Amino acid sequence: MASKQYSINKGINKSLVFKGLRAQYIGYMGLGLLIDLLFYAVLYMLRVNTYTTLLLTVTLGALITAIVYHLNATYGEHGLSKTLAKRKTPKIIRSFSRRIFR
């Protein structure tokens, strides 16, 4: 009886990478471009000139792409979430009584 051979997935516990974007930045890019698509739909329904609509939409899409790639390069895979968490922690904790430590 011949045994089956299965390929081993060597990418376990590695983050997802797509065109240089890592981890959560892929989601940020998708969300930004979805907002860009909705922006185009709203301008189209308001009967704004087609060329103006396309120009604004392409400009917004390029801006979103540049910002997301900049965040990816600056903070890396987990740096942005660490930075956002660090902002929420208090800088100083004051205690006027030692009663809670006894």
Secondary structure elements and pairings:
Blueprint: E1 17-18, E2 21-22, H1 24-45, H2 50-88
Antiparallel strand pairs: 1-2
Helix pairs in contact: 1-2
In short:
By secondary structure, the chain is mostly helical. The protein has two helices and two strands; from the N terminus they run ββαα. Helix content is 60%, strand content 4%.
Description of the molecule:
With 102 residues, the protein is mainly alpha-helical. The protein has a domain of 66 residues. The protein has two helices and two strands; from the N terminus they run ββαα. The chain has a two-stranded antiparallel sheet. The chain is flat. The N and C termini lie far apart (71 Å). The model has no long low-confidence stretch (mean pLDDT 87).
Q: Note the run of SSEs as H and E.
A: EEHH
Dominant shape: flat
Number of helices: 2
- Strand neighbour order, sheet with most strands: 1-2
Please supply descriptive tags for the structure shown above.
mainly alpha, two-stranded antiparallel ribbon, 2 helices, 2 strands, 60% helix
